[in-house]
Amino acid sequence: MRPAHVASPAVWTLRRLWRHRLMLVGALLVLVVAAAALLAGYLAPYDPIALDIDALLTPPGAKHLFGTDELGRDIFSRVVYGTRFALLIGVAVVLIEAVIGIMLGACAAYFGGWADALLMRLVDIMLAIPTLVLALAIAGVLGGGLGNMILAIGITGWREFARLIRGQVLVIRTSTYVEAARAVGAGDARILGRHILPNALGTVVVYTTLEMPAALLWAASLSFLGLGAQPPTPEWGAMIAEGRGFVGQAWWVSTFPGLAIMTTVLGFNFLGDGLRDMLDPRTARGL
Amino acid sequence: MTRYVLHRLLALIPVAIGVTLVVFSLLHLTGDPVRLLFGLNVPEDIVQQRREELGLDRPVAVQYLRWLGRAVRGDLGMSITTGDHVVAMIRPRVGATLELTILALLVTLAVSLPAGVLSAIRRNTAVDNVSRVAALFWVSMPTFWLGLLFIMVFGVWLGVLPISGRAGGLWTLEGLRSHVLPVLTLGLPPAALFTRFTRSSMLEVIGEEYIRTARSKGLAERAVVIRHALRNALIPIITLIGLRLPWLFGGAVITETVFAWPGMGRLLVDAVLKRDYPVVQGIVVAMALLVVGSSLLVDLLYAVVDPRIRYE
Amino acid sequence: MRWQIALLVLVGMIALLMPGMPQFAGAQAATTLIQGLGEEPDNLDPQRTTRFHSLVVLSYVAEPLFTLDKNYKVVPLLAQSHEWSADRKTLKVTLKPELFFHNGAPVTSADVKATFERYITVSPLSSYMRPRTGGIVGMDTPDARTIIFRFGQPKPLAMISDLSDAHTGILPASFIASTPSADIGIRALIGTGPYIFKEWVPGDRIVMERFDRYRWGPAFSPNRGPASFQRLVFRVVPEDATMTAEVAAGNVDLTFDVTPSGLQQLRANPNVTVMQAPSFSVQYLVLNMERWFFQSTKVRQAIAHSIDKEAIARAAWLGVGRPLEGLISEATIGFWPPVRGYAYKYDVERAKQLFAEAGWRAGPDGILRRDGERFEVTLVTFSNVDQWRRAGIVVQSQLRQVGIDVKVETAEVGAAYDRARAGTFDVGVFRNTWWLGQPYLNFLTHSTNIPVSNFSRWANPELDKLLETAGSAVDDDERDQALNRVQRIIVESAVWVPLVSNTSLLAAKKSVGGLEVLASHPWWPPHLRALALTRK
Q1: What are the residues of chain A with a beta carbon less than 8 Å away from any beta carbon of chain C?
Q2: Staple C261 to which of A22, A91, A245, B113, CB 3.0 to 4.6 Å?
Q3: pLDDT at C26
Q4: How close, in Å, is residue B220 to chain A by CA atoms?
Q5: CA of B166: how far to CAs of B181, B184, C132, in Å?
Q6: With an 8 Å Cβ cutoff, is B267 touching chain C?
Q7: In this structure, are residues C382 and A231 in contact, taking their beta carbons and an 8 Å threshold?
Q8: Which residues of B touch C203 (CB under 8 A)?
Q9: Rounded distance, CA C334 to CA C487, Å?
Q10: What letter does residue C242 receive in the DSSP assignment?
């Protein structure tokens, strides 16, 4: 067979195209989700929380595209409005993670010494506790609800960010322009804020895209366990959880929100995978 | 080697204490477990009496130190809901969880190693691309949804496998059958990730000098791939196993809930919903220790796979 | 080599997918009953547990002195006869002869005494019997079969509220003395019931073995012992959808923990029988009377008129609930049927008129306003059980129709009650199960129970006085009259709005016999569950 490591230019180009095609598909999916979130008011034919006692568990059809749930609410409208909550959860969780992670990681790497040792210890400790387990315990204590769930996942999931930023800053810290900035008398905060962090941000953006699907899946899991969004919020994880008692007689109730989660997560995965490839095609690992 | 193991074991102590501190302080921020336990039908004075019995009326710092003092002696306290020793409640469930996670890990590897190797040697062919897209699909699926789908298809529609529960050990047919769906639910989604990872580390290794040498010596392709390339590609894969261990235990929580599996994960979900602090604390700490212990084992695996590594 | 491995894998897969060996399963099935449990018991200690599922399971093992027949009359179980003193302060109970514990020891008055001593010290539910509240101040055992309870105050409800309650299941005195407290009900339990506690695999199953010497079942049971099934396995299946699937697949013989949605699904299954029976449960709405907008009687009545109970029963309970007119259900002891005439009927027009009379006008967004304030309220309800939460959502939607903007917040039971107690809610939708009227209504509405269990924060001296009479008057009629009046005042106040009572549900394989015997008794008591069921 043909040795795999000497791909012909044609194959190489094809491969890049294929990769970018996936990335394009991903970007398209994410765009669709974002558009649905923005235009939910126009797209959804019904009020997502309005009950219709005379149309309980209606199968998908012309009147209700995805059918109705056990309280007669239109599932298509709920799925459409659900995009808002999905994006809210994804963005908010990743934001909390990034803020905590960047602050801790950057400080640890820049100051080194005991600050670094302390952070790495903390990361060790946090890494030993499975994210879902800790988030579950915290969400349970906080009492569930959308905000509490976001907080629980956010304060559990920052450690990868911290490690990533720490590694980046360690490299950048010794670069010549940072040395130069220091030589002209710039302070710590200024060096960190103006010179080091902006250079590490590329990696952060890629990691953010990759972390988004994980945040969505964790949120769905917590909702499934009953610690997520408050009813009648049309949040997808909670919709699956509410509909799971009906799988035998009304498959559509939990199937459509399930597909919605899958599609959104898939979009972010394609996009993040492609971005990582572009940023560093040689060592692209994982997916 | 012994010194290394001892060193790692000693390093567990601060991690364990840190875990307990983090978990304890987070769990005591809110809530009234006794009222939750007794429900509405019990007068306030009786509830207060029970709170005092359990020491829940003292400052959190005092509660923590007392708990830690007992934990060192292997006593994780008493459950608020059952009145049983937390250790006695966790002990019979550790086996079920370990069994589930270990089997799931084996499934993950059994699927992903061959698939990854195949993707690597058939790089950029249809096989590779299908495996890539399939992998992304798999990791995009929520675990509990996959579990529910499995139950519907294999348990209800086809009726060929038990739906829930652990019917017995692996040595009985019924027991073995009851393991199939939970193990697949937990083991298949990470297989996607491992497949892609195996592929890329195989690709790196295949490009190395000694593989070319082996090939030029005229060794059969299969021998080259398996004996030389895969063996070296295993090292980063083992690292990945170590990194994914916490994820595996987290997934077990969901899987055990869906399949009514008598493991620690389900006990945790129960305890969280009933706010049984001592049990939640006990399980989170026990799971953290299991994760750390398994990572230690994974580290030791390096030595088996890669004879160049020596622990000093 | 390769095809050999492939063949091996194939054979292995076929073996795995092959349904379990039929002859083996068949031999076991005839003598074993597998019952699905939706919640794992916390422990099976009669005196310590407060959870419903624990009581149901431990009732197979430990028995109280008395039990209730289908007319809620107290009938003897371990007791043979009883005798009250005229002042209702002394109760003499004589045990049946020939009663044995599972360890072979005969049941004596000393065991009863030891059990009740334990009950009044450790049980969180023994407040009516505690010495401090005029309960048991002494117990005499003149002979091995006679026990005399001495009360500090008249305790006319003692037999029905405590002596026939599973929480007073009699345990051997020696067992209580010699067993560590953490072990009772978890690793060991000895009683007199039709089944012997064998093994508890945590998170998985509880196994019981038939007690062959059992002959003292209650008179209302056609089979007074021993039970038909040799083994009883309680399988813990906490996930609702999984339970439904297990019943549909025939892996569970019967369960009382099927959800309304599961019931709909199983009704169509030719291999499964489903049954319903009334329960004592009450789902009600309560207004926080500290809010200024609820001070107006007209506003409260308008809210009561806005609630369509039928819709809640249909949508939230998928048809297994029934609209409720009083704050206790028809199955509860002490229910007064005429209360139905005082309940506010669903009437949106009347509600709107009442709001208008109270000075509320609809704003441009359809929400009512008065003195520039929008009618916005927070509704707190439970999150754990689908149909409880759904009821809150239906109420939200109904109140929105008449112009009240409702925000729903759900929490699991404990957290929801925490909020109710703290007063950080406007409207609550809660649910209770309580089979005896007086203590329950006292608990929910007496002013001394503000804010612990009377969440309305509304004190009514007339109501208080009537509740006290209903609990302690020696004359039966006087107690009944007082309790009837209590029910009327509660409904008329519109501080509480009764919503629905659900039915108990059962789903069983067609091969399980004796269900008609179970159905002859309104709430399927534990003794019939243990003694009446057979394999067809």
Answers
A1: 49-51, 53, 56, 70-72, 143-145, 226, 230-232, 242, 244-249
A2: A245
A3: 44
A4: 12
A5: 11, 14, 48
A6: yes
A7: no
A8: 93, 96, 261-263, 266-267
A9: 10
A10: H
C202 contacts B83? CB cut-off 8 A:
no
Which one of A49, A53, A142 makes the best mutation probe of the C interface by having the most chain C beta carbons within 10 Å? A53
Residue of A nearest to C310 (CA): A53
Take residue B37 and report the two structure tokens written for it: 């336990």
pLDDT at res. A139: 83
**Which residue in C261, C311, C410 is closest to A245 by CB distance?**
C261
The residues, any chain, with a CB within 8 Å of residue C10's CB and separated by 6 or more, are none
How far, in Å, CA of C179 to CA of C486, rounded? 45
Asked whether this complex has an ipTM greater than 0.85, the answer is no
Tens digits of residue pLDDT in B54-86: 777 778 788 888 888 888 888 888 887 788 889
Q: Which of A144, A246, A247 sits opposite C383 (nearest CB)?
A: A144
Nearest 5°: the CA angle C275, C522, C171 is 105
Q: Using CA coordinates, name the residue in chain B closest to A256.
A: B145
Average pLDDT over residues A134-152: 83
Strand order in the sheet with C361-362: C361-362, C368-370, C373-374
pLDDT tens, residue by residue, B102-145: 999 999 999 998 888 888 888 777 888 788 788 888 888 888 88
Look at the block and give the residue holding tokens 């699905």.
C36
What is the widest separation between alpha-carbon atoms in chain B? Answer: 85
Q: Which of B20-24, C17-21, C84-88 has the highest mean pLDDT?
A: C84-88
CB within 8 Å of chain B, chain A residues 106-165: 121-122, 124-134, 136-143
In this structure, which amino acid lies at residue C87? D
* Cis peptide leading into residue C226 (ω within 30°): yes
Name which of A159-173, B15-29, C123-137, C425-439 the model is least confident about: B15-29
Q: What angle do CA A276, A278, A284 make, to 5 degrees?
A: 50
User: Which of B93, B82, B118 shows the shortest CA–CA distance to C53?
Assistant: B82
| Range among A234-248, B176-190, C384-398 rated most confident | B176-190
- Alpha-carbon distance of C493 to C304, in angstroms, equals 10
Confidence class for position A1, pLDDT limits 50, 70, 90: very low
Interchain contact B19–A (C-beta under 8 A): yes
pTM (two decimals): 0.81
Interface of B with C in 29-48 (CB under 8 A): 31-33, 35-44, 46-47
Alpha helices in C83-223 (DSSP H): 109-122, 158, 173-178
Query: Which residues from A are below 8 Å from C406, CB to CB?
Result: none
Q: Residue C12 CB: number of other CB atoms within 10 A?
A: 11
* β pairing state of C361-362 and C427-433: unpaired
Q: Are strands C32-37 and C231-236 parallel, antiparallel or unpaired?
A: parallel
The C-alpha of A263 sits at a distance from chain B's nearest C-alpha, in angstroms, of 8
Give exposure, B216-228, as e/b (b: 16+ Cβ within 10 Å). Answer: eeeeeeeebbeeb
Interchain contact, A133 vs B253, CB within 8 Å: yes
Which of the other chains make 3 or more beta carbon contacts under 8 angstroms with chain A? Answer: B, C
Nearest residue to C428 (alpha-carbon basis) of C388, C392, C401: C392
For chain C, what is the largest distance between any 2 Cα atoms, rounded to a whole number of angstroms?
92
List b or e across A158-181, with b for residues whose CB sees 16 or more CB atoms inside 10 angstroms: bbbbbbbbbebbbebbeeeebeeb
Cα–Cα distance list, C159 to A28, C3, C164 (Å): 71, 75, 6
Q: pLDDT averaged over chain C?
A: 89
User: How much of chain B, in percent, has pLDDT values that exceed 70?
Assistant: 84
Partner A, chain B 252-281, Cβ-Cβ below 8 Å: 253-254, 257, 265, 268-269, 272-273, 275, 280
What is the distance between the terminal CA atoms of chain C, rounded to a whole angstrom?
A: 52
